[in-house]
Write a structure and sequence with these properties.
The record marks 24 as: Substrate discrimination. 39% of the residues lie in helices and 22% in strands. By secondary structure, the chain is α+β, with helices and mostly antiparallel strands. The strands form 3 sheets. A 6-stranded mixed beta sheet has the order 1-9-8-2-7-6. The structure holds thymidine-5'-triphosphate and magnesium ion (2 copies).
């Protein structure tokens, strides 16, 4: 395997896995530069666990998901800070945008990581290694943060590669080195191996991925069942048929906004919900997706947060329907009059938009709304997002003089 550069075949290792280093901790430290180089832990919440820790804290054995009390014992000098989720979301969005500048084939896996298939980006941006270097340089220049990138022929191997070169690393696994890279690793490194499977493998005396590759498939079947045996056997031989699919890995679309001042007025919050519903619906339509579950998030001035969600009878990509559901959730939450600092709208449980039903009550006119939304999208495309907004978002004063209306196609 090759660290950093190294010649690669003309095609082959085209999958990148990008993962931010100590993400929550690193973003929080951007606002606290005096703490750089110190052991810092981001944690708290009702469960009191470590969410993220700087590598200085990890040197003491601290790691994520560990109870805070234990982390404090291991590293008494560590400073424990609360998470700042809004900031993490903002940085995440910008980092994902950097990745989407390279290729539309970006599949985010969590707030701080994504897969890219760069096979189609070679002509524009160079080899996968050059692309990986460019991404790392841009994230560092734009955000002041480091990430680690694994480059490999499959998603599974790319993900392991990024983990193995952390922090601030780049690791390339050319196709011919995949088996040599995988086989010494413990079985727990395989996707889909949890504690129970690991124990079953252990009973067979299988400790490494290489042991699984050498084990007869029949033996694995007896111990694990057909599906799991096939899956692990294939991965152990470096086979991973999954393609980077920006749609299937995206489980939700959300938009949220931190208000510039805390707001208690219901009308104003409703308008914020309307605007965010429009953003969410627009992003759904841009991806050809529809949602079955609409949720809201309300964070109060004291930082307590409530979320509510409702599953619809039919999937939708219509702004008005998402808004109507969001507004109902807001009203039913019984939080009128409280000062709010952040509002969010989320669409989850996504399906293909083609499956969208149009069987709602006749007065809801989803088809008409949908057409209106699509026209709005088309205009937004040509004149920039925000060029067209629902009337209730416009200032209530008489509008300023406007440029002549663009000609409609
Ligand atoms: P990770 O990428 O797993 O961890 P990390 O970025 O902190 O560190 P590494 O350098 O090893 O990648 O997770 C990304 C962020 O997700 C992490 O900073 C905090 C958050 N997180 C949770 O909120 N809950 C969890 O259980 C875990 C594991 C992470
Ligand atoms: Mg990370
Ligand atoms: Mg991660």
């Amino acid at each position: 395997m090759t660290s950093e550069a190294g010649p690669m075949g003309p095609m082959g290792s085209d999958i990148l896995h990008v993962d931010m280093d100590a993400f929550f901790a690193a973003v929080t430290l951007l606002g606290r530069p005096e703490l750089r180089g110190q052991p810092v832990i981001i944690g708290g919440g009702p469960r009191g666990v470590v969410l993220s820790a700087t590598y200085e804290a990890r040197a003491y054995g601290v790691h994520s998901a560990m109870p805070l009390a234990r982390a404090r014992r291991l590293c008494p000098s560590a400073l424990v800070l609360p998470p700042e989720r809004d900031r993490y979301q903002e940085v995440s969005r910008r980092v994902m945008a950097v990745l989407r500048d390279v290729t539309p084939l970006v599949a985010p896996l969590s707030v701080d990581e994504a897969f890219l298939d760069v096979s189609g980006a070679r002509r524009l941006f160079g080899t996968p290694v050059e692309i990986a270097r460019m991404i790392r340089a841009r994230v560092l220049a734009d955000e002041g943060l480091t990430c680690s990138v694994g480059v490999a022929p499959t998603m599974f191997v790319a993900k392991i590669a990024s983990t193995r070169c952390k922090p601030d690393g780049l690791l390339v696994v050319p196709p011919g080195d995949v088996l040599a890279f995988l086989h010494p690793l413990p079985t727990s490194a395989l996707w889909g191996v949890g504690r129970a499977t690991e124990a079953a493998l252990d009973r067979l005396g299988l400790r490494t991925i290489g042991d699984i590759a050498d084990c007869p498939l029949l033996t694995l079947r007896h111990a694990l069942g057909d599906a799991a045996a096939q899956h692990l056997h294939a991965l152990a031989h470096g086979r991973d048929e999954r393609a980077v699919d920006p749609d299937t890995t995206e489980v939700s679309v959300s938009a949220e906004h931190t208000l510039s001042v805390d707001v208690a007025e219901a009308d104003q919050l409703a308008r914020e919900l309307l605007r965010l519903s429009g953003q969410v619906a627009r992003r759904l339509r841009a991806r050809g997706r529809a949602t079955r579950t609409v949720g809201i998030k309300i964070r109060f001035a004291d930082f307590t947060t409530v979320t509510r969600a409702r599953t619809l009878r039919e999937p939708t990509d219509v702004s008005q329907e998402i808004y109507r559901t969001a507004l109902a959730l807001f009203r039913e939450a019984g939080i009128a009059g409280r000062a709010v600092r952040l509002v969010g709208v989320r669409a989850a449980n996504l399906t293909e938009a083609g499956a969208t039903g149009h069987q709602l009550a006749i007065d809801e006119r989803p088809a008409a709304w949908s057409q209106l939304d699509r026209a709005t999208d088309a205009a937004g495309h040509r004149f920039g997002a925000g060029a067209v907004a629902p009337a209730s978002l416009l200032p209530r004063q008489p509008p300023p003089p406007r440029a002549p209306k663009p000609h409609n196609p």
